[in-house]
Amino acid sequence: MKIVVDDLSGPEIARFLDEHVQQMRSLTPVESKHALDLNSLRRPDIMFWPVSEGDSLVGCGAIKRLDAGHAELKSMRTRSTRQRSGIASQLLEHIIAEARGMGFTRLSLETGAAESFLPARRLYERFGFQHCEPFADYQPDPNSTFMTRAL
Q: What is the pLDDT of residue 37?
């Protein structure tokens, strides 16, 4: 498995991220959807990592700088045919290490509150994330769960 920083210029990653945004739209009301599209992920305050095995894209994740010590985990996704195979755990471990290396002392995230997001919430809990109040520009939302952890 290979995890490297990507410039988001390839057509495969564009399709993969479009699938992610479409899936989030199907699961979450539009006012509660916080998944970033391709152009939003190209901002200079975001670092993006695809995960590949051989020539296949199997996952991705990103962090968004909120301030000098705080970053937000964004765009965590595993290809549906590869879910529960350890890809997300390896990627999350990589992102946490990278965030520490970049000098961040806190990593937070927003994920869905619906039952379909339970596997994601359990993954984050296994990695030390705890439930918290909304952070950054988020507002309380019954469709969202907010989590954070110190690095």
A: 80
